[in-house]
Automatic annotation (TrEMBL):
Official protein name in the record: DHH family phosphoesterase
Keywords assigned by UniProt, alphabetized: Manganese, Membrane, Metal-binding, Transmembrane, Transmembrane helix
Domain GGDEF: 211-339
Binding residues for Mn(2+) 2: D388, D456, H480, D535
InterPro entries noted in UniProt: DDH_dom (IPR001667), DHH_sf (IPR038763), DHHA1_dom (IPR003156), GdpP/PdeA (IPR014528), GGDEF_dom (IPR000160), Oligoribo/pAp-PDE_c-di-AMP_PDE (IPR051319)
Length: 692
């Protein structure tokens, strides 16, 4: 029903004009009366007697219509007005007594009206007209939705209760239409706020989360080595202390701890205990190192925690995947895999190289079988390949050629440190012209019998040509960098050994087991030796027995130390820029050297940045160095340390990765100052959290 105001009547008052359904209700009887008059006139022409009878009924009908129209209409109108008034009062009363807390705010946040539930919820009186943020500080005009958004949700806590607040924008002009006491404004708005109590729901959700099933695997990294370094009479005591320390650590969570093997445990507990372990940052990693009963080697352990799956068996599979990740990153750490989320704890100590070559021999035989079943080999490392990536790729190339396979090395931009080695293989009769191919040409070389071998990198987006990984069904990975969550998946053979000093060391070992008749040329041995030399900083870092054995093998095959040193020397411009970068270094918190390497006019600035980072470690008191190098619209960060700081953890938080003592990261859409601030903020947070 609608009513509109007619012009002033004779008393100067506004009269109402009916419209809509009410107007039709009063108009239809008049229309029917007009039709009856026409019918009556026609009937007088046909039959006077019948027309007279119809006229009598017509007169009665018109009198009834007149009575309804002139007498009943005002009374009907009065009833409608009364009903509307009562209905409005009922609506207001229902809104006031609504169980959902509700209030009306102006655009400054002042309370205009509240219902009883809101008054009870906030503990305010009915005439409360102060600003809402005096009661709920989180609700300020800055969070109010604009007219385009119209609606906004926020979560807040008030008096130990959790609420979801819904804010809705109301156009004040529409309310002020026809009202002279409110001034209209183009941007005037009012806001409705509802409060929904979610405390019970959140409590039940938290209970369900706390009761989730968690599987943990605990492996002692160097059990055999620690046992061998202990006297015979104390070995049983060492094993007993390890068992006691592991069981005691998990006992507060009512966990079930079972020993799978002499150095492996499985643990089952609830998720609420996992949260405590994460807050504790898995202190068992450090506690196990305190076991000293004559063992010369410090014990370390790794933990893989799996949860987030609805099925218990799948949580065990998730825990195994987490453990593989922990071991692939060098051990001495805990990896928590909760669905797609992965968290890392520990990993501060230097990895201990395992002296056994059983794993190398097994991987070498597996590689031989893969190559025997394929005829085409594509080898690639990471973008901006360093000498380790080049040397290891060359080693795989030599193996493939020895087995009679067609082979190519995928090589993009050649850095200044690699160019002297690459030039030694170009335009030589014993090496084909297509030995090196560009990343853009590599996909065209793929066929049904192609195997792609990736060296010195295990992240697909860092390879020279990620497209090869998608197109080729047979992929092999050899790398010495610690694994991250975004590793290459689907490889038929993956050998990631974070204990190795370099990829060149790993491939040198593989050469010795794939085929006994492989003989390296002097230039080939030089490249592999240079890869080991660079990644160990001249055999000063991460150099174990296997590293020197690999270097000795290469020396026997013609690697010349003097020749390699000459090829690795810096040119004068690069050396000057390194000196400038060292001179303007900033020492942050008396322990971290941060500098900028300006590579203008230098072929490969990133190499200069890495050399600068190495040189900064020679300064007394420096625990880690970070050198920022702008190059081709990117910011490259080279991070180095000796043994006190795990720079890989620092770089991982910045989206990079690497080793405990050698790592890096890349930034895009970032300025040098922003990069420095990111590094400082990351260091501050890690120091605060006890990670450094």
């Amino acid at each position: 029903m609608e009513m509109c105001v007619m012009p002033d009547n004779k008393y100067g008052k506004k009269a109402f004009k009916y419209s809509g359904l009410l107007r039709s209700f009063f108009a239809w009887p008049l229309y029917i009366g007009a039709v009856l008059i026409i019918i009556c006139a026609i009937m007088f022409c046909v039959n006077v007697t019948a027309a007279t009878v119809v006229s009598i009924f017509m007169v009665i009908y018109l009198m009834a219509c007149g009575l309804m129209y002139f007498y009943m209409r005002p009374r009907i109108m009065s009833g409608i007005v009364e009903f509307a008034s009562n209905y409005s009062q009922v609506q207001k009363q229902l809104l006031y007594n609504l169980s959902v807390p509700y209030c009306l705010l102006d655009n400054n946040g002042n309370v205009m009206w509240t219902n009883k539930a809101m008054q009870d919820c906030l503990g305010i009186k009915r005439d409360f007209r102060k600003n809402i943020n005096t009661v709920i500080p989180e609700v300020t005009p800055s969070i109010f939705p604009d007219s385009e958004m119209g609606f906004k949700e926020i979560r807040l806590t008030f008096q130990d209760r959790d609420y979801k607040a819904e804010l809705k924008n109301i156009d004040a002009d529409s309310i002020a239409e026809g009202v002279d006491i409110i001034e209209k404004s183009m941007d005037s708005s009012m806001y409705v706020m509802y409060l929904f109590d979610e405390t019970d729901i959140n409590t039940y959700i938290q209970k369900l989360k706390d009761e989730r099933f968690v599987v943990g695997l605990v492996y002692i990294d160097n059990y055999e080595e620690a046992l061998d370094s202990t006297d015979d009479v104390r070995r049983s005591l060492l094993a007993g202390l390890i068992d006691k320390r592991v069981n005691k650590y998990f006992s507060p969570g009512s966990a079930i701890v079972r020993k799978l093997e002499k150095d492996k445990y499985i643990v089952v507990f609830r998720y609420n205990f996992l949260e405590k372990l994460m807050q504790d940052r898995f202190s068992l990693l450090e506690e196990i190192k305190s076991i000293k009963i004559g063992n010369e080697m410090t014990l370390t352990l790794s933990m893989g925690i799996g949860t987030g799956s609805a099925e218990y068996s799948k949580n065990y599979d998730v825990a195994k995947a987490a453990m593989d990740l922990a071991l692939g990153r060098g051990g001495d750490q805990a990896v928590v895999k909760d669905g797609e989320k992965i968290l890392y704890y520990g990993g501060k100590s230097q990895q201990m190289e395992k002296n056994t070559r059983v794993k190398v021999r097994v991987k070498a035989h597996a590689l031989r079988q893969i190559l025997d079943n394929n005829s085409n080999v594509l080898v690639m490392g990471h973008t901006l390949a360093d000498i380790d990536a080049f040397g290891s790729a060359l080693g795989i190339y030599v193996i493939a050629k020895k087995l009679g396979k067609e082979a190519h090395i995928v090589l993009g931009e050649v850095t200044s440190s690699v160019r002297p080695f690459v030039n030694r293989f170009i335009d030589k009769e014993e090496y084909p012209d297509d030995m090196f191919i560009k990343p853009d040409d590599a996909p065209s070389k793929i066929n049904a019998s192609t195997v792609v071998i990736v060296v010195d990198v295990n992240r697909p987006q860092r390879t020279e040509c990620p497209e090869l990984l998608e197109k080729c069904k047979t992929v092999v990975v050899f790398d010495h960098h610690r694994r991250q969550s975004d590793t290459i998946t689907g490889a038929v053979l993956s050998y990631v050994d974070p204990y190795a000093s370099s990829a060149s060391e790993m491939i040198t070992e593989m050469i010795q087991y794939v085929d006994d008749n492989i003989k390296l040329k002097a230039f080939e041995a030089d490249a592999l030796y240079a890869g080991i030399n660079i990644d160990t900083d001249g055999f000063n870092s991460k150099s174990g027995p296997r590293t020197f054995e690999a270097a000795a093998f290469l020396r026997r095959h013609g690697a010349d130390v003097t020749r390699v040193r000459k090829m690795l020397r810096s040119n004068m411009n690069e050396y000057k820029e390194i000196a400038k970068a060292v001179s303007r270094v900033e020492v942050y918190k008396d322990a971290f050297a941060i500098s900028i390497f300006n590579g203008d006019g230098i072929d490969t600035p990133t190499v200069g940045g890495a050399k600068t980072a190495n040189d900064l470690l020679d300064i007394s008191g420096i625990k880690a160095s970070f050198v920022i190098t702008p190059y081709e619209d990117k910011i490259y960060v080279s991070a180095r340390s000796i043994d006190e700081v795990n720079v890989q953890l620092v770089m991982e938080k910045l989206g990079g990765g690497g080793h405990i003592s050698i790592a890096g990261a890349q930034f895009t859409d970032c300025t040098i100052d922003q990069a420095i601030n990111k590094i400082k903020l990351t260091l501050d947070n890690m120091i605060k959290d006890g990670e450094i």
